[in-house]
Amino acid sequence: MSRKAGQIVARGCRTWLLRVFLGRDRDTGTRRYRNRTVHGSVRDAQTCLNQMLQERDLNRFSPSSTITL
To answer: How far does CA 68 lie from the centroid of its chain?
Structure first.
C-alpha cells in the first residue's frame, strides 16, 4: 500500500484544508507541503486536491527560495 500524497482536513463548517506533500528539503531534510484552504463541499475539496496532485506530478510547483541580504 502506498502512502497518501494529499490530505483533506476539516477546518470548520464547509471549510477544508488541503495538503500536498512535495518531498524533503535537500539542505535541511524537513518535509515540504503545499497548503490551500477551500470553502465548499467535500466534492469541491477533492476536485481541488486532484488538481494540486496533478500539478505536483507535472512539476509545476516552484520551490520557494530564501534570499539573504
So the answer is: 26
How far, in Å, CA of 56 to CA of 31, rounded?
A: 15
Asked if 10 and 46 count as a contact pair (C-beta separation under 8 A), the reply is no
* pTM of model > 0.85: no
Confidence of residue 28 (pLDDT cuts 50, 70, 90): very high
Give the distance between the most distant pair of CA atoms in the chain. 45
Task: List Cβ neighbours of 37 (8 Å cut-off, separation of 6 or more).
Answer: 11, 15, 16, 17, 18
- Residue type (1 letter), 29: G
Pairing label, strands 6-12, 15-24: antiparallel
Map grid coordinates 470553502 to a residue: 39
The helix/strand/coil state of 47 is helix
